[in-house]
Amino acid sequence: MVNINFREKYKQYKKQLFWGLTGGIILVLIIVIIVTKPKQYDVSESLTVGRHTVVESVSITGRVRTSDRAELAFNASGRIASLAVREGMKVKKGATLATLEMGSLYAQREDALAALAIAQADAATNRLEQDTLVADAYQEMLATGLEAYAVLQQSNVVPPTISGFYKGKDEGEYRIEIYDSSADSGYSYRYSGIESGRGTAWIDAPAPLGTQGLYIQFDDETRYSNSEWVVPVPNKRSSQFVRLQSAYNQALAARDRVLGNESENMSVRTKAMINQAEARVRSLNAQINEGVITAPFAGTVGGIIFEKGENVQSGEVAMTLVGEKKFEIVLSVPEIDIAKVALGDPVLITLDAYADVAWEGVIEKIAPVETYSDGVPIYETTVSITDADERIRSGMSARATIETQRIENVIAVPTYALQQKKKTTSVSVITADDEIEERLVTTGLRGSDGYVEIKEGLVEGDKIIGSETPQE
To answer: How much is the pTM?
Structure first.
């Protein structure tokens, strides 16, 4: 009885062991199949690796302001005589905006200017006289004794007669070429040099030679065909030239002597009158300018604090002027981003008032010293708007996207295609057999546009997936 029970239990044990082992083997096979079975991916999620432009940027809010803004005041006290502008009015640089009552100052300046003019006129009399003497002597030297000389010496040829008075100021010569023509005299001529032109030869009266006061007349018994003549100005061959030149040099020396002595020895009274008048004019101009407000730059008049007829004290702000020629945006760049920003970086600007419009700008100034906002160090950065238009107003809220780095035509993939595992970065690559291969990659610039530069690990044309979607 005992043996029968033992055998039954042994058979039952062997049966349980068999099925246990069989089940275990089947389980292991299932796990192996699952593990080794190639994963399937949704084809629609595959990407082809290509080249892109990767841009890194920093986006910061700021406010528009004009680069030119001034609070304007008189430098003297008094009653406002005129306001030439109103609030919101555009003005040009140098325009007069307001003046104080200064009638007595204007009258005093007119008197001072008149006194100065008289003193200067007295001092200028001798100079004018001496300049006239020199000019007359020079003109006499140029115009006296002018004659025509044959370029090629010819016997029995009477030179044309030169008459009139030369009024020109230039030295030189008239070169005259005579040729046969149908004129009554049988000749005409061309002249060049100091002046150029043509003329008809006259034998019974002088004919004009140019426009400077000279005349030329030909002898009726002389043949002038194809002859050339020259009239030098001044005529240094003339017997009178030495005397005339000496007179001119003496006039020059006399002028230098007289004016030199005048400069050194001008009467004390004349000098004093000129100096006194000049000083008085300068003083009155300065006083008048203190009572005038002018625009230091082109812009729009802001608030006007006083009205015409009111009294104002020196230095008291009377109005404001806002420049519109150049707008800029002031940004507070946090310490974490300031190292990325550099002078000259391009900036894309949007305004809250015009959300669908973008303007361009450039980083123009970065503060060298930090300030603090809520305990965080920030650096005031100025962006110049390069294509500002009439829609932009001082005080508008703005957002500036600063392009801090750009690389073009590089292998790049979307950020979501990367898989981070501890210290490595990989990408799921679809092989030629439609299997998935985990491939390590080396990344570069991470753009603000969602793309990451791939320096190593992928080539153009590789197919990758962005996210796994196993298919049953």
So the answer is: 0.41
